């Protein structure tokens, strides 16, 4: 990617650090119109901003889509439509209107399936991420005296870690025996794929479930899900992924990779709003062999659901895992976002993302690499892999300056990003709505923030 950037600079006769390059790349970005479909806060609207340090009329630099995506402009329109329908038609809204409440989420699942690389019947929109993770593990985690371990990564997102802990305890097992955690090698920031495969080969006979992230939230590492799934299956393990930080960020092929199950939230890169409707996937080969441990009315086939005879007509596959009707006010923002994704492809979004993040990486390394001859110079260390195949759009940064001070100075200057303990700032230029000019502005602001944080 840097070769492409340098080639453009040569034609423009400008430095790679010049704003001219960012403007040129934005002008030739065929996805730039998608930015206009989102509401981008102004710097003056952010609560931590110091108005003496910013142009209050400018859009903020929003690099926090890995934590909460921006609001699609159609979100309010769709929610207002449903509130109006409720006011005017009452109970009839369950079966009438453009999104009947009784099955509204099912009209979105084809679009969602395209994003995760699955068949429509393999995907369900329901519940929250951790609820879905529990439901799936209740069926896929079937420990025996010989095969009882769950493999997860070090520093897994707390909700995953806690869910796995509770599933192990629910079976009356010990954490020390049944939770198998893989860490990066000493002195390294990310986990090598060969180390994951090697551990599965060594311990596979005792592993019931491989349960990793798609993209690791802290380091930003994109795991090789296909290779890991193949390794797990070769040892008789089920393989599942929490794709919260991967969906809408990386190109996924859950069906083709033969992933057994996956779940994800939709409020990060999928822009459905805080606590938005989550997603679940089960490969079609398990449609009749894996059944839910807990059932609810919404898992009953729609054609016979309202016969009310209390004789379960369970839908096959992931649809049988539905418990209740979905909140229509959560369906609306997800619809608004999925319609934007439907205007492009994950391949095109990923292509822009790789270039956008490479540009950010180049500028950080150019200005803020460690200089042994000048130990007082502020420096930034990128812990996320440099290889585009091993990361999404997020870069996780650690600093020579105290991280909280840097984060607070960025907030004062109209930057929305994300700090995670103990020592990482996560910045995510999202291809749906971020620009190359955003990246260039961020680097300029970062310099001011680093200087201020050391005073």
SSE layout and pairing:
Elements: H1 2-12, H2 19-27, E1 38-39, E2 61-62, E3 71-72, H3 74-89, H4 109-116, E4 123-125, H5 129-140, E5 149-153, H6 158-170, H7 175-178, E6 179-182, H8 193-203, E7 207-213, H9 225-234, E8 238-242, E9 261-264, E10 279-282, H10 302-305, H11 328-341, H12 346-368, E11 380-382, E12 395-399, H13 403-412, E13 415-416, E14 418-420, E15 424-427, H14 436-453
Parallel strand pairs: 2-13, 5-6, 5-7, 7-8, 8-9
Antiparallel strand pairs: 1-3, 4-10, 9-10, 11-12, 12-15, 14-15
Helix pairs in contact: 2-14, 3-11, 5-6, 8-9, 12-14, 13-14
Main location: cytoplasm
Function: Catalyzes the cleavage of L-kynurenine (L-Kyn) and L-3-hydroxykynurenine (L-3OHKyn) into anthranilic acid (AA) and 3-hydroxyanthranilic acid (3-OHAA), respectively. Has a preference for the L-3-hydroxy form. Also has cysteine-conjugate-beta-lyase activity.
EC number: 3.7.1.3
Morphology: globular
Order of helices and strands: HHEEEHHEHEHHEHEHEEEHHHEEHEEEH
Strand content of the residues, in percent? 5-15%
Tell me roughly what share of residues is in helical segments. 25-40%
Looking at CATH, the homologous superfamily of the largest domain is Type I PLP-dependent aspartate aminotransferase-like (Major domain)
What are the segments in which pLDDT stays under 50 over at least 5 consecutive residues? none
In CATH terms, what is the architecture of the largest domain?
3-Layer(aba) Sandwich
Looking at the structure, the CATH topology of the largest domain is: Aspartate Aminotransferase, domain 2
Main beta sheet strand tally, sense and closure? 7 strands, mixed
Going across the major beta sheet, what is the strand order?
4-10-9-8-7-5-6
Total domain units = 2
Number of helices: 14
Radius of gyration: 23 Å
Distance between the termini: 36 Å
Overall CATH class of the largest domain: Alpha Beta
Q: Let me know the average pLDDT.
A: 95
Beta strands, count: 15
Structural class category: alpha/beta
């Amino acid at each position: 990617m840097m070769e492409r950037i340098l080639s453009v600079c040569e034609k423009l006769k400008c430095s790679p650090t010049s704003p001219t390059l960012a403007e040129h790349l934005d002008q030739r970005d065929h996805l730039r119109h998608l930015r206009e479909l989102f509401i981008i806060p102004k710097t003056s609207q952010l609560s931590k901003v110091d108005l003496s340090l910013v142009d209050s009329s400018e859009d903020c630099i929003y690099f926090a889509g890995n934590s909460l995506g921006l609001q699609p402009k159609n979100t309010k329109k769709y929610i207002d439509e449903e509130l109006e329908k409720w006011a005017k038609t009452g109970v009839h809204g369950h079966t009438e209107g453009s999104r009947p409440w009784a099955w509204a989420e099912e009209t979105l699942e084809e679009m969602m399936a395209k994003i995760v690389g699955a068949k429509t019947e393999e995907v369900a929109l329901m519940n929250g991420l951790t609820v879905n993770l529990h439901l799936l593990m209740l069926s896929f985690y079937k420990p025996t005296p010989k095969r009882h371990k769950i493999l997860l990564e070090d520093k897994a997102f707390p909700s995953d870690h806690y869910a796995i802990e509770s599933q192990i305890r629910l079976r009356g097992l010990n954490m020390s025996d049944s939770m198998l955690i893989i860490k990066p090698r000493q002195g390294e920031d990310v986990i090598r794929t060969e180390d994951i495969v090697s551990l599965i080969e060594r311990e596979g006979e005792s592993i019931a479930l491989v349960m990793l992230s798609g993209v690791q939230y802290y380091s930003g590492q994109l795991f090789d899900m296909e290779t890991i799934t193949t390794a797990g299956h070769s040892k008789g393990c089920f393989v599942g992924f929490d794709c919260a930080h991967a969906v809408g960020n990386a190109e996924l092929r859950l069906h083709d990779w033969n992933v057994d199950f996956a779940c994800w939230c939709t409020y990060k890169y999928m822009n459905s709003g805080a606590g938005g409707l989550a997603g679940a996937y089960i490969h079609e080969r398990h449609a009749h062999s894996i059944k839910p441990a807990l059932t609810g009315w919404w898992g009953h086939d729609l054609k016979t659901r309202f016969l009310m005879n209390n004789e379960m007509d369970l839908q096959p596959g992931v649809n049988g895992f539905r418990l209740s009707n979905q909140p229509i006010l959560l369906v609306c923002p997800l619809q608004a976002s999925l319609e934007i994704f439907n205007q492009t492809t994950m391949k095109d979004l990923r292509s822009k993302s790789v270039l956008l993040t490479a540009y950010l990486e180049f500028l950080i390394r150019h200005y803020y690499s460690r200089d042994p001859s000048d130990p007082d110079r502020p420096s930034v260390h990128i812990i996320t892999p440099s290889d585009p195949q091993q990361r999404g759009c997020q870069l996780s940064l650690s600093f020579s300056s105290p991280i909280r001070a840097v984060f607070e100075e960025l907030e004062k200057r109209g930057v929305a990003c994300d700090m995670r303990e103990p020592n990482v700032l996560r910045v995510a230029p999202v291809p749906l709505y971020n620009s190359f000019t955003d990246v260039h502005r961020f680097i300029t602001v970062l310099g001011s923030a680093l200087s201020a944080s050391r005073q």
